[in-house]
Amino acid sequence: MDKLRTVDWNHIRAFLVTAEAGSLSAAARRLCLTQPTLSRQVAALEAELGLLLFERIGRKLALTQAGRQLLEHGRHMADGASALTLTASGQAEAIDGTIRITASDILSSYVLPPILHQLRQIAPQLTIDLVAANDIRDLMRREADIAVRHIRPEQPDLIARQLPDGQAHFYAATSYLDQHGRPQTPEDLASHDFISFGDSKRMIEHASDLGLTLRPDQFRIETRNGLVGWDLLRAGFGIAPMHDKVAEQTQGIERIMHWVPTTRFPFWLITHRELHTSRKIRLVFDHLATALTQRS
Q1: What Cα–Cα distance (Å) separates residue 213 from each residue in 91, 95, 168?
Q2: Coil/strand/helix, residue 82
Q3: Cβ(35)–Cβ(62) below 8 Å
Q4: Residue 221 in contact with residue 227, Cβ under 8 Å?
Q5: Type and span of the H or E element at 108
Q6: Residue 158 has what DSSP assignment?
Q7: 84-117 b/e with 16+ CB inside 10 Å = b?
Q8: Which residues does residue 194 pair with via DSSP β-bridges, in sequence order?
């Protein structure tokens, strides 16, 4: 991708916004360009690189394999350009006010704190309001500026960037395993307890997709709060799946059921259209994107 060094940055920006928006019309609105102008910029980038970056599926544009590869390189360029501009002009330290970030309770407690420490160093005058919640409507009600979610939003007024997938496996407390034994085969699970994160039926269905057979009576305790569920696991109430990055930070628990395939789940970083006009949102969005990618 050394060719990226010689192409027009405006063409790369046109490609990035089109990839995020999913259509030329939506991307043109975000960049305040006409659709033909934006289309010419994307076509020019394809010509400069000698690659087909998009293919049309119905009314939407889908990235080709080459486009997906270029997307990550382009994002790194955009992050670097933003950081360079902010650092060179001293704008990062001048950015103040409040930025509201919403993420799940688990992410807010285990994944985001070190990332937000870095952000505080970059923009010391910024006030961070971290909202631990799972409702995408926080953004639509303007109750948050940026969200980290596991599903891509369908609302056209939101900008979404896909991050590397998370990975999860099954865990249990050492105290629980010492008392109930460590399951070595799928048949061993029949005598074990599981913790439900709010919907045991869905967890049984998920287990079935992984080739496991679980019964409703194995879920004797449940909670819709991820932190409470993880604390119940640490207290020895049973077995549950968890994001590996969370488990790595937790003492007194063990990964079990190694024969079960890895569960992968998506991460999306989401914000409003103001991404393109607000230095504050741009700074935080780019910082989160880079940090969460590095920690994947």
Answers
A1: 56, 53, 18
A2: helix
A3: no
A4: no
A5: helix 105-110
A6: E
A7: eebeeeeebeebeeebbbbbbbbbbbbbbeebbe
A8: 219, 239
Closest CA to 160 of 264, 71, 67: 71
Walk me through the domains of the chain, giving residue ranges and CATH numbers: 2-86 (1.10.10.10), 95-164+266-294 (3.40.190.10), 166-265 (3.40.190.10)
Whole-number Å distance between alpha carbons of 75 and 81: 10
Other C-beta atoms closer than 10 Å to the C-beta of 80 total 12
* Site of tokens 């991820």: 226
SS3 275: helix
Under 8 Å CB-to-CB from 264, ≥6 apart: which residues? 165, 166, 167, 168
**Are 71 and 65 spatial neighbours (Cβ–Cβ below 8 Å)?**
no
How far are the Cα atoms of 196, 210, 232, 256 from residue 189, in angstroms, in the given order? 15, 13, 19, 11
Q: Tell me the three state secondary structure of residue 56.
A: strand
Tens of pLDDT, residue by residue, the chain (296 residues):
455 556 787 888 889 888 877 788 888 877 778 888 989 999 999 988 888 998 888 777 888 888 888 887 777 777 666 666 555 555 666 788 899 999 999 999 999 999 999 998 888 999 999 998 866 555 656 678 899 998 887 777 788 888 888 999 999 999 999 999 999 999 999 999 999 988 899 999 999 999 999 999 999 999 989 999 999 999 999 999 999 999 999 999 999 999 999 999 999 999 887 776 788 888 899 899 888 887 76
- Cα separation, 199 vs 289, in Å, equals 30
Place of tokens 């989401």: 270
Tell me how far apart the alpha carbons of residues 69 and 56 are, in angstroms, rounded to a whole number: 18
CB 273 within 8 A of CB 157: yes
Q: Locate tokens 């997307």: which residue?
A: 71
Q: Let me know: does 68 contact 59? Beta carbons within 8 Å.
A: no
48: its two tokens: 């400069």
